[in-house]
Structures are given as structure tokens and as C-alpha cells.
Amino acid sequence: xxxxxxxxxxxxxxxxxxxxxxxxxxxxxxxxxxxxxxxxxxxxxxxxxxxxxxxxxxxxxxxxxxxxxxxxxxxxxxxxxxxxxxxxxxxxxxxxxxxxxxxxxxxxxxxxxxxxxxxxxxxxxxxxxxxxxxxxxxxxxxxxxxxxxxxxxxxxxxxxxxxxxxxxxxxxxxxxxxxxxxxxxxxxxxxxxxxxxxxxxxxxxxxxxxxxxxxxxxxxxxxxxxxxxxxxxxxxxxxxxxxxxxxxxxxxxxxxxxxxxxxxxxxxxxxxxxxxxxxxxxxxxxxxxxxxxxxxxxxxxxxxxxxxxxxxxxx
Length: 315
Fold this sequence. Notes:
The structure is a single chain. By secondary structure, the protein is an alpha+beta fold. It has 2 domains: 3-159, Ribosomal Protein S5, domain 2 (2-Layer Sandwich), CATH 3.30.230.10; 165-306, Alpha-Beta Plaits (2-Layer Sandwich). It has 10 helices and 10 strands. The strands form 2 sheets. Strands 1, 2, 3, 4, 5 and 6 form a 6-stranded mixed beta sheet that branches. Helix 1 (67-79) runs antiparallel to helix 3 (123-133) and helix 7 packs across helix 8 (248-259). The radius of gyration is 19 Å and the shape is globular.
């Protein structure tokens, strides 16, 4: 029987780029949070020995380079199973837009395949598969608010925040992550561990001031306090320093989000998607309407805490 799951996106709340490592990657610090926007992944197991991918979006590769193919291949190997696996990817998220769509698709494939085979991989094996495929897959093994370290593959679940209204804008421009890292290296000397630790301190200071209160919902003055506290930390995305000069349109989108009332706005990952955090859904809806009228591709959604992430995945 085919198994269908939601493949949720993510945004980065701050992203700090550290020194280049001997393996060629950079050390990173970032806060990931899942959001309610999603693709759909359907997995079907049949007799045979093959992995077949289906997707109507021409930008999605349908060969072994696809993260879903890799996830299915590695999972079958770990489970010592042979089967014909059909993976259908129903795309709604942007391709290479900074929302982690390909990474999320891979983890969704992993979960759907486990359910279709009625076999569950150990948590350690899941994490190893995720890290082998890419740098930001492990966050989708948890959902909710996650601290990313290492090259981004080390995921540390944090106490969740309540849902925060968002406006997501994805301009029709592409950003090359490898080129963005190269531009960063040319712009600045490698960050030190002290700088990376400052990011950690800012993150925990913010979370201590917001989560410790135990407020279960985001509304009114509490919402404004939470978002203003985030702004005061100074947490930002280092990629903006190299991507905005190269693609001024993205800086303009961030400014437009702020003009429309976003308390905190940022590039997600290396882009090209940007988001704004709003105090209320009503404010987010009004902002999205005005941005859309101005020709921007704007949608309203929310951050997705851990409990609804898991509950809604298989709904």
C-alpha cells in the first residue's frame, strides 16, 4: 500500500559561518525551525530490485543524484532488504530556495519507506544516513526548533517556541551555495571559535528569556516581546553579506518585509527565499497581500513546533 507523508520546509533563524575546515566544509552555527509549508512524498514497495522516482517538476532530478533516491538506497542497505521502490514527489516548495526542500524530501522518503516496509531503523542509523546525504537533513529527524552545528549536520533539539506567523517570499532568482561560501572566504578572514561561541550565547540568552516563561501561545504583547528579544540579540545570517551585493533584489525584498511590519526578517540559508516574522496572523496576511500586489511571490505560513510536526506528517 502506498504511504504518503508531508515533507515540511525549514527556515534558518540566524546563520554564522566559521572557518573552513580541513575537509573543505565550513563550521556553522544556526537555528533551524520547521515551518508548515510542505511537499508531499509517496512511497510504494513492490516486488523487484530498483528505485524509481516520479516528479512532474522538470527541475527535480530523477536519477541517483536525487536525495530521495539516496535515502531509499541507503535505507534498503541498512535494513538488508531488496525491493522495487517507487517514490513520487509532489512539489510545492521551491527548488534550491533555502527552505531545505531536498533534505526534507529525503527524510520524508526515509520515514515513508520504514512504514511501507514495516521496519524501523535505529535512530543512530537514521542520523548516519542523513549526515551522509547532506548537511541539513538531521534537523528533519526532530522537527521544531533545532540548533545546527558542525557543517550543519549536527542537530540539537531545543525547547520549542510557540507558532510564529511568517510571510515567505521566494524571488525567481537562483543562489549558488558553493559560490556564496567562496564569496564569504574572499570577503572576510575565517571566524574564530570565540565568534561562534558568541552566537551560542546569544541563542541561549534569547531562549532563556522566551521559553522559560512557559507561555503556551503567541499573541499580543507576548508575541512582540519574543520577537523584539530576537532582534536585540543581533542574530543574523552571514550569507546576506555576500548574497545581497550580488543580487540586490533580495535585499529589496527584506526591506519590503520590514516596511510591511515584519519584526524580524532574514534570508533563509543561502537563499533565495526570505521570510518575515509577524506579531499576528492578521498582520502577516495584510503584508502578504500588499507584497503580492507589488509583484512578489508571498505566502503566509507559521513555524511548526515539534509536536504538530510529527502529528501532521502522516495525516
